[in-house]
Amino acid sequence: MLPLHPKAHIPCHLGRHSGPDYSAYGCGPEQAVDGSLGTGWGSTAGDDQGDPTGTFVAKHITVELPKAVDVSSFGVDPASACGDAGSASTGDYSIEVSADGNAWTTVAEGHFSPADRGQLNTVTPTVPTPAVKYVRFTIKGNQVEDVAKANGEDGTFESICGDSSSAGGYDGCQFADLTEMTVFGTATTTP
Ligand SMILES: [Ca+2]
Description:
two-stranded antiparallel sheet; binds calcium ion; 191 residues; single chain; Jelly Rolls; mainly beta
């Protein structure tokens, strides 16, 4: 169950996503908004085939809220899923919101580290977020560099995953996952 929160958890309905769809393996994009930290969205780090190319290609999901919501915060568990090792967890990310699904405003961005896995981390919007109808979460990078550094190996995603002798040495060279993204807030009231 999700932790208690002073604002209500808003159910999210999955819209479009980029990257491959591993729904057949129980790791589709809808698993990122199913309210469970036991399931996750499994995607790829580079191309849709999961080749360790050394070039990260951002992946996103878009969700529609049941009605306009004054968003107070987001809850994010960046942990890897679908059997992938921790390096595939979401690292760099951004969150955008929209009232109409066309015009988007970036309201949060940053980096999740290994210590953030396995829990809903509170992400507070950096700008007011009234009357939100759509939310887009983008995985801009994963935790390959964090895990490599912990192993005493300095390098960038490009150098670590693009080196033909070590490419694929980390699951994150092939995969990028997100366990959960939750929206908290209250229904917008019209004056
Ligand atoms: Ca989930």
